[in-house]
Every structure is written in structure tokens, then in C-alpha cells.
Amino acid sequence: MSETSDPHENAAEWRNWVGDQRCTPAAVATPASIDELAAAVRDAGETHRTIRVAGSGHSFSENVCTDGLMLRLERLADVIDVDRSTGLVRVQGGITIHRLSRELAAHGLAMENLGDIDVQTIAGAISTATHGTGARLGNISSQVAELELVLADGSTLVCSPEQDPEVFRAARVGLGSLGVIAEVTLRCVPAFTLRGVDAPAPLQDTLERFEELALGNDHFEFFVFPHAETALTRTNNRAEEAPRPRGRASAYANDVLLTNHAFELFCRAGRRAPRLIPRLNRLVTALAGRSERLEGSAAIFASPRLVRFTEMEYALPRRHVPQAVRAVMEMIERRGFAVPFPIEVRSVAADDALLSTAAGRDSGFIAVHMYRGMAWEPYFRAVEAIMDELDGRPHWGKRHFQTAASLCSRYPDWDRFQEIRARLDPRGRFVNEWTERVLGPVGGFPHSSDPPTRTAARG
Question: What is the pLDDT of residue 178?
């Protein structure tokens, strides 16, 4: 292992994007090659350290936190190969979606669908079933054609629909619990233009037409502030015209000054005087007008996020979305929660990854947020109770209060995932308190102890 990739003892505290998830790993490694990555994993096994992989830290859950070895993949962040004829693009796991989109654009390619934040690493987005919106489009993990994992013993395993298909279905949303995603082959599409239209609409009409709107647009989502009766809708549809990018000044004024700095002021005012929140929310909604953009897909999909918040999101059978939104809005009024952030609603097509939040069903997603420094847990618990009644599955990268016992019945292939997990990581290296809570211990062994030696099967 090169000197620059050696794990640093007494590593500094790690924090996520918001700063509300923190840990102090015993060591941190930043490998620059698969060989260095494999060596770091083997060394952790020899010293009986557990391992977690940190991407860009844009997760709201404690899934990365560790007191063992933290792997950082920022030096494994290159595009390895681009085949324009097939659209297959091979990249290293540490590349951010923002950089990936720029590299793809230079080759006339794009991802078919992305979320509204692009700072995540591709490995982190895949591992947690991160998604955008589009009723006929899957989450980011569904765009993966092949994965190369570094397993707990330092060996590598390549999986795809043709090679180790069951491992592939597990590893596409592996939660960092099967191995380290070293390289990814993505199925990309020719670069395309989107016409994005933001417009207010009556909330009740939007809810009644949700299925129609979701299926009638390439990408549809909406936001609604508590105490308001207007939905802020966003539709993005493919256009044949060439992009007409906004000028830098216009983009800065809208995306930074209005969407972030002005909204931050409203949130601060609400935090200081919670009784004003209903009035502020209605004011923010009233100020939102219609706007239209014609730009390349990546520029339309992603928006800067400068206001700090924490978040919970649930996937539901899509038909339950209107009922769920109404229940959350009514609950906020009834319980008197001070909520300065909107509820966000999106949709995603079904896929077959074993632990994908959209596994086996077309899904709607409902996300709730709370501004930093404000009490979030009572609100999130109340929302979660509603989602539990509607067969909800929590987003793996966001806050929730579920356990393995409450989650196992929500995933038809739960046991298959656990069997693959025990086979690939028999000694429980890729674990922490979060994985023990949401997945349970590997083979019944808590992460603080070593189970008897087993022989790991590798593809």
C-alpha cells in the first residue's frame, strides 16, 4: 500500500453535510487504486476493525458512522471507459454525480434520470437507492449494468445480470454492507434537453390528478408547504430544441439568492418565532410564480442546496400518495407542529434490486424536512406512523426509526439479501450500529465480536 493510502490513526471527526451525524473513526484510508483499496480492507480484517465507506456525506442517516476504518474514495473518482455506441460508461465509485454529468456531456451522453442534488458519489447514490422522479423511470441503481466489489477478504467480485445475477440484485442497493463498490458500469443515453416548467396549482386538484400527472410527464413532482392550499408543481419533459442555458447572473439570482438565501431568511424567522410559520409558508407559496427553462438534462435535474436541514423520506405504493399527503397535512395542523419546509412528492418506477425502496412496485415518494436547529423527531415520528399504515419503506440514506424486525416484512426478498450478505461478509466487517439496527447482525453475530471462521464463497 502506498504511503498516501495508509490508514491514518487517530483520525479527525467526520461529519455529514448537515453536521448532525458525527463519528471519530479509528483510522481513515484514501486509496488511489483497487489494489490499495483491497489492501486497506485486508488490513482492517487483520486488526479486527469494522469498515464503513464515506462518500460525500450527503446522507441524513448514520449509515457511514464508524469507530473502525473509514474508507474515503475521493481518489477513486475517474471515468475509466466510455462507449458511445452502446452508452456503457465505466467509472470509479468515488466520482460525484456532478462531475460524472459533466464528463458524460463531453461525450454527448447523459444519465436518463437523476435526483435534484448532484454532490453525492455514484457509489453512495447506488447503495442507498437514491432517485429522481419519473413514473416510468427507475432510481439511479436501476441504471447500473455492472459492479465491481472489493469484498471483506480483499478479493474482488464482478457482478451483472449475466454474471452473479443474484449478487448483482443485492449489491445494486447494498447499503455498504456487502463490500466496497470500486467500479460501476452505467447504462447512459444520448444527451437530451429538458423543458422545465415550475408553476403553482391548487393542491386538491394536484392530488386528485397525481397519477395522471405522474404518468403524463417525463418527470413530475410537487412541493406543498404546511398550512397552504397551493402545490408548487415541477414538470420536466424532453424537448427537441437545443438548450438555452440561463446566464450566470440569472442562475445566481434564482438558484442562490431566491431559492436559498431568501428561503434561509424565512426559515430563520420561523425558527425564531414558530407562531409565524403558517403565515410565512403561505407567503412563500404566494410569491412562487410560473417559470420555464430549456437546458441540458443535468442542469435541469440538479439544484444547489445551501439551506441546511434534516430529512426523512418514505416510498409508498403510488396509489397511496394522495391519501398520505392529506394525512400529513392534517396531522401537522392537528398536532401544531412548526414546519417551515415543504413536503416533497415524487414518483419512481418499480425495479428488482432486493432492497430497493421501489422493489416490485411503482412507487410514490414523500419527503419531509426540518430546518437545522429545530426539533425534528416528534414530527418525523408522527409522519412515520402514517407511512407505516400505508406500507411505507424508508429511504436508506435518510432518517427513520425502523429496525430489522419492522422492515423485514416490507421486502419480499429480505431473506435472500441476508443470505448473500452472510456469504460475502461472513465475519461482519462492513457493519456499524446502523446496519445492526436496520439489517440485524450478520449471521446473528454482533459487530463487536468475531464469529467462527467460515469460508466465503466468491462468485
Answer: 98
Tell me if domain 3-72 and domain 193-402 are identical in fold: no
> Which pLDDT score, from 0 to 100, does residue 261 have?
82
**What dihedral do alpha carbons 341, 346, 351, 357 form, nearest 10°?**
20
Question: What CATH number is given for 3-72 in this structure?
Answer: 3.30.43.10
DSSP 195-258: EEEEEEEEHHHHHHTHHHHHHHSSEEEEEE-TT--EEEEEEEEEESSPP-PPPHHHHIIIIIII
In the prediction, which pLDDT does 260 show?
78
Do 139 and 130 form a contact (C-beta atoms < 8 A)? Answer: yes
> Alpha-carbon distance 236 to 345, whole Å?
14
Q: pLDDT value at position 2?
A: 39
Q: How much is the pLDDT for 4? A: 41
CATH hierarchy code of domain 79-190: 3.30.465.10
Cβ-count burial 168-192 (b if 16+ within 10 Å, e if not): bbbbbbbbbbbbbbbbbbbebeebb
Tens digit of each residue's pLDDT (9 = 90 or more) over 241-293: 998 887 766 665 566 556 778 899 999 999 999 999 999 999 999 999 999 99
What pLDDT does residue 303 have? Answer: 87
- Give the integer Cα–Cα distance in Å for 193 and 235: 13
Name the stretches of the chain with pLDDT < 70.
1-11, 248-258, 444-459
- In angstroms, the Cα distances linking 89 to 107, 167, 446 are 10, 21, 38
Long-range contacts of 4-10 (CB under 8 A, 24+ apart): 4/30, 4/32, 5/29, 5/30, 5/31, 5/32, 5/36, 5/39, 5/40, 5/75, 7/40, 7/43, 7/44, 7/69
Indicate the fold that domain 193-402 takes in CATH. Answer: Vanillyl-alcohol Oxidase; Chain A, domain 3 (3.40.462)
Domain ranges of the chain: 3-72, 79-190, 193-402
